[in-house]
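Sample A.
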Amino acid sequence: MSDKHVSPVRSMTGQGHANAVGDLGSVQVEIRTVNSRGFKCVPRLSDILLPHENQVEALVRNRVHRGTVHLSVTFKRPAAEDVPSINSSAMDTYLSAIQQLRERNPSLDAQVDLALLFTLPGVLNTVAIDRSDHEPRWAFVQGVILEAIDHLDTMRTIEGQRMSESLEVDCGQIGQNLEVIRNTSPRSVEVYRQRLQGKIERTLEEHGVQVGPTDLLREVQIYADRVDIHEEIVRLGSHLKMFSSVLRGEDQSSQPTGRKLDFILQEMFRETNTIGSKASDAEISAHVVEIKCAIERMRELVQNLE
């Protein structure tokens, strides 16, 4: 089976099963994935498949890029390949013991029943025929493993799509709050100017002192520079667009989607924090809180994405 196209966003958790019966034997595969920061494969293979352990891990790594993978592969040979063999050493031991018994008891004249002798422990061994050519067996097992991974990906893609829809909703809410902050920011400077001017005029009136408009403008400008959040708003908007781009699969990076989305969220949270600390406007602060809540919800989901 070949690797098929899947949704750019997949959950890290899921499970898949597959089995097949052929001329070489029967194979049963069970694969289960759980959350993990990196990739780890924990295979449990039948003894006959142990020489293929590195191939199994490479196969899984090519399809699963993040998370801990628990993989169980059971292989059974065809019954016709299990043929009995006579353990000559065990047979000789039993016959020697019978001969010694006769020598100690000459009156014994029992005949040796070979059919019963074969039923004694260790006389017959079941020895599996080993094929010198392992490639046909690996090709057979590989196909079943890939089928199980396909089923795993189907489950992870469905769950990832649900997460993606929730993340898109939060992106929209962040965008709406950011737009309000963008429109409110210039007004906050003007509100401060009016408030500062009113305080100065009352203070000067009390003391009978006058101050030129230039000094007042200089103070307002200093404040405007200190609370200017234009750059942070632009960067947060840029990060938000990048997040949506990665979420929709428009980004062609080979890096796991979940890891990249997590990094973008860290940058978004940093810019939001700066906006909240620089802006001393109550309305802006309220929208900053809403953005932070949305980012936290998104972060919890992203931690579960591959």
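Sample B.
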Amino acid sequence: MKVCIYGCGAIGSLIAAWLARGGADVSVVARGQHLEAIQSDGLSLASPDGEDTINVSVAAGGNPNDFGEQDVVFLTLKSHMLADIADSIAPLLGAETMVVTACNGIPWWYFYGTHDFGSPELASVDPGRRLWNAIGPERAIGCVVYPAASVVSPGVVRHVFGDRFTIGEPDGHESDRINALAATMRAGDFEIEVALGNKLRTDIWIKLVANAAYNPVSLMTGKALDAMIDDPATKGLLTSIMNEAIAVAKALNIDVPVTPEFLHVATRNLGAHKTSMLQDFEAGRSLELEPIAGAVIELARLQGVATPSLDMIYSLAANKTRDGGKGDN
């Protein structure tokens, strides 16, 4: 299988290395020093304990035109960056190309393959339907990413934990192409679940309920996960946001099968880990606020669900993002 990873950061590098290990023909679209290191020395992936490292040779470049049509394209950029690169994906797309959205938040294809809610445009996710029109929702494959990874140095990534991915067709049916993709990923030692029926959207919402709470609250408090959960007032706010997100999912016919307390217990086990949003803010990078928190609010408005706690933290986080946290505005 010819597979291109568009956005070779930590998770993109992890996926690329595992797929190459399994025998896929892998190319990566990357940039800067990371790209230069991969081109000169290959892509290295260290194990969580740091004792083992694999090095794979992959085709690497900064221009999708370099690689031609692919069987699979993994979009592993931050979800709020996708619309800006929509048109540049075209050289990678053939008639049968699968496009896997391995991103946080509500995916741009969310209402494709459903019949209960029509196909509303979600400005927080895909403004102007740029992704919908450039890629075509019929190419979309859903993906929920559970592992964590970090870039140690240019060309070198550390696998932090996890190997589980959920993939599935937007309409929930079992297809030849999803089984072929699952087999390719399993050959690289991914733990793959093929989601059928409503399972894909359910898994998307389980992760989103947690992200919509922990990410913007961590941005405002500057605290790691354990510190937020251990503080009663902050934990109360997190719980309120989670319950609001669960209500939005319910309005979209998704029963989230976990409680806020379950998520707190599971997340507390990660210890003093900072959310990706807080890490991005501290590094001066742009944030995934819209596809995570903004999208839940937009869906809430479409369904007439009140989200006062999420509205408040989203407004504060958006203001902090605009002024760089310096209180200038």
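B remarks: Residues 90 and 185 are 24 Å apart (CA to CA). DSSP finds eleven helices and twelve strands in the chain.
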